[in-house]
Amino acid sequence: MSTPFYVSPQQAMADRAEYARKGIARGRSLAVMQYADGIVFVGENPSRALHKFSEIYDRIGFAAAGKYNEYENLRIGGVRYADLRGYTYDRDDVTARGLANVYAQTLGTIFSSAAEKPYEVELVVAEVGETPEGDQIYRLPHDGSIVDEHGSVAVGGNSEQISTFLDQRHRDGMSLAEALKLAVQALSRDTNGGEREIPAERLEVAVLDRTRPQKRKFKRIVGGQLSRLLAANGATTEAESADDPEE
Amino acid sequence: MEANTRGTGRLPAAFLTPGSSSFMDFLSDHQPELLPGKRTLPPVQGVIEAPHGTTIVAVTFPGGVVLAGDRRATMGNVIAQRDIEKVFPADEHSAVGIAGTAGLAVEMVKLFQLELEHFEKVEGAQLSLEGKANRLSTMIRSNLGMAMQGLAVVPLFAGYDLDRERGRIFSYDVTGGRSEEHNFAATGSGSVFARGAMKKLFRDDLTEEEATTLVVQALYDAADDDSATGGPDVARRIYPIITVITDDGFRRLTEQEASELSRAVLQRRLEEPDGPRAALL
């Protein structure tokens, strides 16, 4: 056992942050945006089985970029937290703010504990309100901070560039098709400014739709419905309803 | 540990432990005192008086299943509640109706709904109908201690089996033993009379609407002969809860629909108090 040499706390933290950031940058980016009837999650994901987006509770959705096993762990922890809270109190007492807080505490503790390696994940927790003003989107970087976002947010490898692109073009009250197309446009830009095509089968899309009659507002958009939305020319069409019976 | 579900500290290790997709398993690891089955009753003399729910009936038809229940809860010979709800959606494609100790039953249903939803969220897929029926068995079994002291819960579980493409019914006994019922089933104190009625009225080519009429007839006959089962209460506009499950999912008939069905049955009973006549041979 050799004598460990001294590393300043600043340096140690900077190293850990860089480690986490590099891990997250290896993951594919995803975008979360508000649209007229709710919140849409869009990401490039070649896998049909391993999801980046998931339902946590009635009005709360989850998105993550980075290392799969780590965010999957946090996702299940979140589902357990939400279900236990709803069972102990009432369904209305489960909020995105509470969940984001728990995630921040968890990520922060792991990040600053010398015994564990930092998690290489960046999360988004979103809650759809009764009206667009009630929508909440929280971004949770690897270090336990919380950023309260409005309109649109991107996380993952190329997120800064994508965020800037979305911020410039996102408007409140977009239709689902418009929001989806904007997100796909943003995700298909390379770091060097070029564009590439992301085919529909490589997209993972889900919504929290406030107009759904069920109390659970999360829904994946797949297959024919996704193709129709991508083909819609911005005008409101039949395909725009997120409650398409086709699964 | 306690504070973590109520406060906003770090998620405890139990939350981040991979493994089970069952909410009940997670609870028994993390906060077992929240599970209904973990309670022990102090020894008491005689029967504990608590409101009891009574009759639940179910019938299959091509394309789905109907589950319905009356609205009465009794405590001894007193009507404890006139408009109790005993039929609940379990998830998108199944429902559960409960006879027995009302308070425990409602809690059991709440946990059962949560168990199914939790599994679906963690796994990204629904449990099979058999799997759901088995989870309910486990929950009833955990209530055995209470059941022995007179606080039994006896549910009827009905759902649409997406794999076999038909409605199915499962009945249970107090020990959690389950058996699949064919065509129709009933549970609770009025169930003997309801079953007799359904036996005479059931056909295997019922439409959805005929199946809903059949359960109203069966509940009427149960209320006719069992004092713990309530008939349709026209004065207070309290009608049976009727639910239909098809491949489209779970649907509860609106108050308007239930009222029209009940009034139609009632109207005929004013002329024929014993209900429809079956052929002798």
From TrEMBL, chain A:
Its main location: cytoplasm. InterPro entries: Ntn_hydrolases_N, Proteasome_alpha, Proteasome_alpha-type, Proteasome_asu_bac, Proteasome_sua/b. The keyword Hydrolase applies. It is found in: Cytoplasm. Gene3D superfamilies: Glutamine Phosphoribosylpyrophosphate, subunit 1, domain 1. Belongs to the peptidase T1A family. One of its GO terms (biological process) is modification-dependent protein catabolic process. It comes from the Bacteria. This is Proteasome subunit alpha. GO terms for cellular component: cytoplasm; proteasome core complex, alpha-subunit complex. The formation of the proteasomal ATPase ARC-20S proteasome complex, likely via the docking of the C-termini of ARC into the intersubunit pockets in the alpha-rings, may trigger opening of the gate for substrate entry. Interconversion between the open-gate and close-gate conformations leads to a dynamic regulation of the 20S proteasome proteolysis activity. GO terms for molecular function: threonine-type endopeptidase activity. It comes from Streptomyces seoulensis. Keywords: Cytoplasm, Hydrolase, Proteasome. The keyword Nucleotide-binding does not apply. Component of the proteasome core, a large protease complex with broad specificity involved in protein degradation. Pathway: Protein degradation; proteasomal Pup-dependent pathway. The 20S proteasome core is composed of 14 alpha and 14 beta subunits that assemble into four stacked heptameric rings, resulting in a barrel-shaped structure. The two inner rings, each composed of seven catalytic beta subunits, are sandwiched by two outer rings, each composed of seven alpha subunits. The catalytic chamber with the active sites is on the inside of the barrel. Has a gated structure, the ends of the cylinder being occluded by the N-termini of the alpha-subunits. Is capped by the proteasome-associated ATPase, ARC.
Automatic annotation (TrEMBL), chain B:
The active site is at T54 (nucleophile). It is found in: Cytoplasm. It catalyses: Cleavage of peptide bonds with very broad specificity. It comes from the Bacteria. Residues 1-53 form a propeptide. This is Proteasome subunit beta. The formation of the proteasomal ATPase ARC-20S proteasome complex, likely via the docking of the C-termini of ARC into the intersubunit pockets in the alpha-rings, may trigger opening of the gate for substrate entry. Interconversion between the open-gate and close-gate conformations leads to a dynamic regulation of the 20S proteasome proteolysis activity. GO terms for molecular function: threonine-type endopeptidase activity. Belongs to the peptidase T1B family. The 20S proteasome core is composed of 14 alpha and 14 beta subunits that assemble into four stacked heptameric rings, resulting in a barrel-shaped structure. The two inner rings, each composed of seven catalytic beta subunits, are sandwiched by two outer rings, each composed of seven alpha subunits. The catalytic chamber with the active sites is on the inside of the barrel. Has a gated structure, the ends of the cylinder being occluded by the N-termini of the alpha-subunits. Is capped by the proteasome-associated ATPase, ARC. Pfam families: Proteasome (PF00227). GO terms for cellular component: cytoplasm; proteasome core complex, beta-subunit complex. Keywords: Autocatalytic cleavage, Cytoplasm, Hydrolase, Protease, Proteasome, Threonine protease, Zymogen. CDD domains: proteasome_protease_HslV. InterPro entries: Ntn_hydrolases_N, Pept_T1A_subB, Proteasome_sua/b, Proteasome_suB-type, PSB_actinobac. Its EC number is 3.4.25.1. GO terms for biological process: modification-dependent protein catabolic process; proteasomal protein catabolic process. Component of the proteasome core, a large protease complex with broad specificity involved in protein degradation. Pathway: Protein degradation; proteasomal Pup-dependent pathway.
